[in-house]
Fold this protein.
Amino acid sequence: VEQKNAEPDPVQLAARAIRPTLYAFPSPIDIQPRQWIYDNHYIRKFVSTTVAPSGVGKSSLKIVEALAMASGKPLLGSQPKGQFHVWLWNGEDPRDELDRRITAAMLHYGLSKSDLEDRLFVDSGRDMEIVIATESKDGARIAVPIVDAVQRAIRDNAIDVLVLDPF
């Protein structure tokens, strides 16, 4: 027996929306080039990853890359494609350790606060956890309110690059 006022099944609604799209063959001149941000590794609208064993300097590299992108300076030899708003979130180190590492990198590369203006955002996972998914016996579960809050923070602060270390 069918109920007239019953909510439609979300799975059935999603299934109805799955239909192949005939390719439109756009003109090559109408296709926008990729928006590279830094060193052919960071690209707008894509996820980039840096993978290596523990203890080889990934966090130090991420800090200097963030400083390069925020300052627009080629600190590691690669010229950033501009000055970008960068949010560096480190899930392992406390804030005072991040301050030590960022300040040391700034001193090493001769950067000042004015080089970064209002483009560098830094948070520690010890002060602000960002857990976007959990896993249980029933599978992975996305923490939608957290994902929404991260997206809102990115929009509200015009963040170009979000570095999650580690992800």
About this structure: Helices lie at 10-16, 58-71, 95-109, 113-116, 144-156. The first helix runs from residue 10 to 16.
